[in-house]
Amino acid sequence: MVARKFVVRHEDSSFDVDYDTEDGLEVLRFQIFSLTLVPPEEQKIVAEDDNRLVSDESDLASISERLRLVSIEEDSVENSDAEMVKSDEELARMLQAEEDAMMFQQFVAARVSGGFEERIRPYISQVLMYEDPVRQEAARKTVPKDELEEKALVSLAKEGNFEPSKKERDYAFLLQLLFWFKRSFRWVNEPPCDFCGNKTISQGMGNPLTSELAYGAHRVELYRCTMCPTITRFPRYNDPLKLVETKKGRCGEWANCFTLYCRSFGYDSRLIMDFTDHVWTECYSHSLKRWIHLDPCEGVYDKPMLYEKGWNKKLNYVIAISKDGVCDVTKRYTKKWHEVLSRRTLTTESSLQDGLRTLTRERRSSLMYESLPELEFRDRQEQEELERNLHSPDDASVSLPGRQSGDREWRIMRSEFGSDENSSVSSSSCPVRKCVDDHVFNIYDSFLPILTQFVEDGLPVARAIQVLQMIKQVLVDLKNTPYKTRKARLTLDSDSSSSFPEQFLPALGDLLLALSLKSERDTNDKSVTLCLDGKPTKTAIALPVALDALRELIADLSKCQNVNKDSLSFPLLKQNRICSGSVLASGEELPSGIATAAFDGIQESKWEEPNGAKGCWIVYKTLYNQMHQLIAYEIMSANDAPERDPKDWVLEGSNDGGSSWCVLDKQTSQVFEERFQRKSYKITTPGFQANLFRFRFLSVRDMNSTSRLQLGSIDLYRSHQ
């Protein structure tokens, strides 16, 4: 650990930064962000004395104390030719390797029989099935469209986008369709026994039945049960109509069926055939104006380097096939083109392109003339993008997993396994993320009038819990109704124990407001209807938070002997929660374990740091840099993997942009006995005003069995202002 004092010059200003080198470069970037408002991901920091770039590999203890900050935007104008292109030596090596590969390709291709086009043609017939209205309708009927629409809108709202464009909504829905398909479809290693459900063993291939051939199953695998004499058939169906029904298969069936689903909802889609034995989907995003990689088997999107970098695949040909033509997209999926080129020996590059153009012309020959210019423009755009991608640097901060689908031994045999720990996409360089959680603050505060009414009426604990259960049930009813027209009824009766006490209705006002709901008296005056009072998305994002909070409140209240004024305090009441700040973390899992998940008020979500077991951090910056006196905080364990729970940590605050830190609390040997367990901590020496709060997690429950840290939630509580 070395304490340094830097002077950072930016534009016409200079800033003093006190810094501890143990914290790493990301913390220094966040401190500079607090002072200059240049986001960490857009910062370029150079030492003024020798113009040396400050990077993750720099020795922060020995670099010059005078630094200069250049934003990436400014730097793009100032970059020298040396920074714009690769070195002459490296470029020469690559060109020579490509030339050698092309010569080898010419030699081998001359000795290999043709037929590349004929290998592609069956897949053209395959993708044309996706245009069949009957198949499309069959697929749409199986999709919970309203549920996925709601999830798509909530995902956008969590990023602060409550008014998305149609293009943004469409893209968000596509991702939810991918996640739903991943949950719904079943991977088959060996099918279970048709008779008793036990494990089976392969018995080779069988002859297809007429009923199987009707859906394109020209190959049928046979499996013998290990517990009974039954032989189970596994037809490899090619017709996506049958796959919509069976919902099972391997990568071919997964990609085949998922591409049908994408076309069924109007997405420009294509089947991607990897000649090294994998299949996936691409869809065109009008929001991003490019083709998006979607792998339904893995549930991964827009990560084209997954195969070469994560699975360690040695790619050769990756061909996109759609109703509008055929395209070679190999360059999207590699950063090692000269190596890939040496493996492309089935035909010459010129013959390949000629063949693909022929197939594309055939497909477009029947199209209306007006639609051709748009397709050709998109083709040109894509070719330019593929060339840019080939020479753009790889994002070293993103870690891609080995293959997750399929039997472990099968994946190891194919050398696609990766590691046990690295099972998801993760990033060690996180952007500053905005917390969209003011509704969590409002929901937590809304329980005060309800509990106050309990105290004033002298309700026994059992009756108070019963009333809360009624509130919870009506919210469950609301959640189970279509999100655009949510409505549920609450029966009123002051005397009946099975109905909601009418005198408590006014106390519900704040909770309904926090949920963007309103109550309307029914004509019989014996019930009220709760319905939307604002944008459906605001209710959709808030309902899960309210339900989780009610479950916890009921559990906490059940441990009380009575409800009195002393009960109206922390931790039963969670008032003055800090919200709407921004977060930066040392690492995160993508897309479901990002840093803001720790502050969204939802139990099922979590922040996951893939390399955090032996130390990591998360920094919270308050809205508008408001100073707060922290008086308490809570941490909740996540849904699984107790070995990843935080065990030792330090909580610090800063009021000078992160130049110096004051220790607010320190905990050691903490154990979360249950999943979703919330632990509350009071700041024993309050009084320090801060606008930056940092958790330094020092270790997890079992560092020997995991490299990861995860937690369900963090809640910070300030003093009353």
Automatic annotation (TrEMBL):
Coiled coil: none
Domain of life: Eukaryota
Gene Ontology MF term list: metal ion binding
Boundaries of every Transglutaminase-like domain copy: 243-298
The keyword Zinc appears for this protein: yes
Keywords per UniProt: Metal-binding, Zinc
SMART domains reported for this sequence: TGc
One Pfam family cited in the UniProt record for this chain: Transglut_core
Compositional bias annotation for Basic and acidic residues: 382-394
Region (Disordered): 382-405
UniProt key word Metal-binding: yes
InterPro entries: Transglutaminase-like
Similarity field: Belongs to the transglutaminase-like superfamily. PNGase family.
Name of the protein in question: Galactose-binding-like domain superfamily
Source organism of this protein record: Arabidopsis suecica
Phylogenetic lineage: Eukaryota, Viridiplantae, Streptophyta, Embryophyta, Tracheophyta
